[in-house]
Amino acid sequence: MEETKIIYHIDDEDTPYLIKLPIPSDRVTLGDFKNALNRPNYKFFFKSMDDDFGVVKEEIIDDDAKLPCFNGRVVSWLVAAESSVSDTQSQCTESQAGDVPPAERVGGIGDSRPPSIHANPVMRGQTSDLCDTCTETDSVLSSRRESPPVRPGYRDNRNLPQVRPQPNNRPHLTQQQQRKCHPP
């Protein structure tokens, strides 16, 4: 009998897990995966192929949905949900003025970090189609306004008073050379 290998990451853990289900990969569903894991209160994201964006992480909430398969295996990320019900419908429908979307990093192909630190693949590039209150964050670091770090051995002159050289004050010249340049 055929089996499906599912590699899954849980929250911020570095090492992924592997589970084998005795179901052919073209028939395995989210419900099959959930039953095998018995992990309530998690959101399930899967490596998927999008015609417009290529490889993305897609949240699947329908237990009857077939799981996307790459090279005979399914790659998944489990993220602890605040509640057992997925809140994908509330992400853009009603946003309060004080709400700030989380700053997240975009995952690349083969990036094994959980989607809790990746941008929401469903929203990327589609914000104007879904609502005009959604925003997209490309970088957390680009928004910081801190001063650059001071390198070891490098003198930080920002807090020192500025001294302007006087026309007669040329330390690299000898006194005799200075007299020639500026006679009394």
Automatic annotation (TrEMBL):
It is found in: Cytoplasm. One of its GO terms (biological process) is canonical Wnt signaling pathway. Residues 87-184 are annotated as: Disordered. Keywords: Cytoplasm, Developmental protein, Wnt signaling pathway. Residues 143-158 have a biased composition (Basic and acidic residues). The keyword DNA-binding does not apply. The keyword Hydrolase does not apply. One of its GO terms (cellular component) is cytosol. It comes from the Eukaryota. Its main location: cytoplasm. Residues 1-82 form the DIX domain. InterPro entries: Dishevelled_protein_dom (IPR003351), DIX (IPR001158), DIX_dom_sf (IPR038207), Dsh/Dvl-rel (IPR015506), Ubiquitin-like_domsf (IPR029071). This is DIX domain-containing protein. It comes from Paralvinella palmiformis. The lineage of its organism: Eukaryota, Metazoa, Spiralia, Lophotrochozoa, Annelida.
